Amino acid sequence: MKKIPCSRSAAAVRGLFVCVLLAALGLAAPDALAQRGGRPAPAAPAAGLTEADTSIGLRLKATRTRAGASVTVDAIVPGSRIEHMNVQTGSALLFVLDQPVTSLDQACALIENWAAAPDGPLSLVLEHGRAKSKVMLFPIGAEARPSAPTGRGAGRGASAAAVTTSTEQALAAKRLAIRERRSPVPRGPVVPVRGEALDPWVIPGLAERPAAASRINVLHRVFIDPQTGELAFVGRYDPAFATGTIDYSTLLHDALLSPAPSFSLEPTAATKTAVASFARQFDQQMAANLSNVAAGKAWLTGIFDQLLTNPALETDRQRFLARGAELLHVPASDVPTHVQAMLGRTPMGSPPWVNFWAQAYQTMGAPEAAAYIRAAANKENDPAAFQGALDLLGLRPTINDLTARLQSRALTESVAYARLEVAIWAAIYSRCGVPARRWQAAGDSAGRTGDTRGFRTVIDELNADLVRERIIEPWLNDLVFTEQFLQQLHSMPALVTQPVCRDGLAPDSELARTFLAADWTLKNLTVTPELAARVPGHLTPTQFLFREEAARGNFDHGGVQFRLWLTPETVTLRHDAAGSVVEFRGGNPGLRAEVLEHTAVASAGSRLTREMLPAYALEISRRYDDYARALPELHRLREAAKLLALVRWAHERGLHLVPPESPAPPRSLPASFQRGFWSAFFLAQNGHTFLGLSASGGVDFSAGGDWVRSSVAPEVKESALGQLLGSAALGRAAVDAAASGDLESARALADQSARAMTGDFDISGQPALPQVPEASPPSPVDAALIQTEVLAQTRQDIDTMERAQKTLRQTGAGDLARAEAHDQWSRAEEHLAHLHSLLAAGASPLPAKQVVQLLRAGDWESLPKPQPPAVATAAPTPPAPTPAPPSPPVVDPEERARLRGEITQLRTELCRIQTQLRRFNATIQSDQDQRADWEKVTNDAYESALKRAQEKFEDFSVDFPGDILKEKLEKATDPAERAKIERALRLVDRFKDAYTTRDFSDWAAKEEFTREEIVEGIKQIMEICEVEQRIKDYLSKKWGLKRAIAYYEAGDDILTSAYDVTAEVVAWRRLKQLNQNSDSFLKATEASGRRLRKVVAEIHAREVQLGLDPGSTKEPCAAP
After folding, report:
1. What distance, in Å, lies between the first and last C-alpha atoms of the chain?
2. Of residues 678, 522, 651, the one with CA closest to residue 257
3. What structural domains does the chain harbor?
4. Are 138 and 113 in contact (CB under 8 A)?
5. How far is the C-alpha of 204 from the C-alpha of 202, rounded, in Å?
6. Distance between CA atoms of 448 and 414, rounded to whole angstroms?
7. Per the count of CB atoms within 10 A, which of 152, 617, 688, 908 is most buried?
8. pLDDT digits (tens, 9 = 90+) for 1041-1076
């Protein structure tokens, strides 16, 4: 379309400037600032009106008298509400909604905007003869209010409850027709909605791939048996490419059947016909938009409304809002409100209106104008800010000069007003970079005559141009819209594409699926600008072309059809002379472009288009790896290209290739897709706005074999075999480390083994690494197959053990989860033992493929076993007599009874500890009732244990004369004696800390002192201090103990109490603390675990003393 005017908003912003400037000069302006009360901005008038019907029942007429142009009431529609009011034909219309009437166009616009969205009563000021009157027309259904008292009467006004007559109904229909004809604002504000954005990269109807046996997604080399053609893949898994593992065997099967395939998603015949018809209709609509301003404006406004309200256009809405947010420097959530203000749908002076225009002038490079807009809207509340805004615009000298000349009557009010209005716009336009020639002549004329009508017309057009050039065009230019956008707004038919396989490509093959996914990805890549978030700098073809056109100032306004498709680039194969080892280099596919049809408007634009499309394809090819990291299917295509290159190389050498695995079952592709991969894009330049169309895609590997480059490199084999042997040595070390429980080392060794196999880890100069065999394996293919499988299973075992370890360390893990974790750990350990046995067996007599299958099936009995070392054969010796079983030890009955009693006590303690651990691991938090019961039990135990310990310890821990130990430390000279005293002092400090904090769990949590060490420390303290009579007296008086040795028992009792608190109470009493610090919880649990293991060991020791098997006295614990 030729021009996108700003419609109502441009005139509205000029209106606010005018009203506030009148106040700045002190000129009379009846209700000049009343626009802030919520009335809508005036609509853009239809040029050239001399008379017009209004929807309120008045026919208005433009007349010219000696005083100048005016608007008069030409007729009143009979039966209308206005007929019963104080309105006479021939009356001059002076004000509408408190705005001075300047033209018939403006008066009609104000009235129709009010009728479309009434906000309060419609006020009209009329003059008949020399008498003036004010008429208030209330909206239907509004509450009737009397008009303000005047000298001519009070309470005059029409009742809102008046019955709607048939005439009123006719007028309502007439109002609707007028609104449609004059294209005013809609009846109400558009309410934005949110829909669901579809993921363009998901291919509907395509089943997920099963996990591949290869466990790699980057192919580095292949080992080939030249005699049989059997091969082994060697590579790595790179998580940067989110493909999952790639089924190289199945792809190789497909490539052997179709070494030069091609594929494309193409529209069906019916879709081609429908698209051709749509394109013709679309061209006609664009031509209509270009030829008629009103039609173009309605079309563009409709686009804005659909983008904000149609939930089917969520992707387009997000793009539209994101661009607006970037342009206006506001949050995306604020953009819909700004759009409404830009389209003139918000009342002038309202906060949304002010915010939009302030942001617009900020965007245009005039922050002073933005500040003036905000200050003017809030002048009454903050006059100082308003005066400051005038100063920012540099208007103070002009205002002072005009005020002085006005007071001295050197200027008339109209001339002073006109000159100030010109000055304000001059200040704004100079900051916006608008050339003075666009408004200077009209401004000079207004300043001479005082008549601003011509100047305001220029200002309105200039503001509309500014909004179009600085806001709308940057907002829309190169904005890409979806296929759904075309279907919703332009009745584009539903497009259907179907997979087309060529050159022997089987439609149900994995290779066809790979080509389909790559083509789908390419087609979406060219219509998805959001990809720039994942691939910085990404542009769609239309965005790339527009950027170049804008840079060169040369735009192609013609029609163009082009295609983009993927083809293979150079893949380099390095191999030994026998062809037993092949190493891959390169392999990135490339993008090609071709202009199919071009209807050029200018030859320069045509040349630019034909030049830029190949440049775009070259840019995508150059950054293929960046795109492959964001779009995994492009990486999968790159890997398929390696296999296609391998097949072509093998065919040239007459070599038969045998994939290591059977192919996956064939799966057919979906028959069709409801997608056409079309897009719409905007181009607004030099007053023209276009909506263009584009589509692209395809994958073609049918070209000759020039892209496959092979070269003989003798060092390839030696290097590959060395890397294979080094990887095997590291793999064995990883198995051993994992079996011993050193998961951190096992993980590192497994990773090094995988990297060594592809040459990414140099094992030379690493003395700490395992010994690497010097002899090459008999069959590199077999060795690679087995090593790859063993390494993959080792990593699985490490993963399993790490998960189990994590579960066992979790504070909230239940009994079942912990039992499963123990079982997983045990199975992984057993599996690693089998792997160790297999590796120790050396070369296997079984075929490598069979060994791999047995490994995957877990059939360890059928796998080779390590042979015992050979020994020299000697003469047979007679078998030694079978020794008689040892007789059980003779135990004194009294001793046996004592041991039995101790076993009973230990088993009781064992049950108690087990109960404690079960309670630790129960998911008590999920059951508040059980939790409350548990807390009661533990609280009681806590109080009992604390009281028991405190009774025997409190005074001692506070009053114990530590200075005695310090005195002895000063006198001691023997290093051993000094060390004993220092340790006793630390233990005393520990006692005091434990008492002070009331946290006896600290005793068990500290690794420095074990339970036995604390008891022994108490004995040491008593031994050191026993000679001091005051200690004996202290113990006797304070504790009632007659001999010092009794404190040993008290200390042991205190320690027992401390363990009760640690294992049974503290964790729950201090639950919040322990939840925040899981280490404390783990230490408390581990302390109980250590105690449990010691108790079991003591039970077994006593059982052996009795001549029993360890564990033979085990009995079930009583229910708690």
Report:
1. 86
2. 651
3. 44-182 (2.30.42.10), 200-259+557-657 (no CATH), 715-862 (no CATH), 923-1076 (no CATH)
4. no
5. 6
6. 10
7. 617
8. 333 333 334 444 444 444 444 444 343 444 444 444
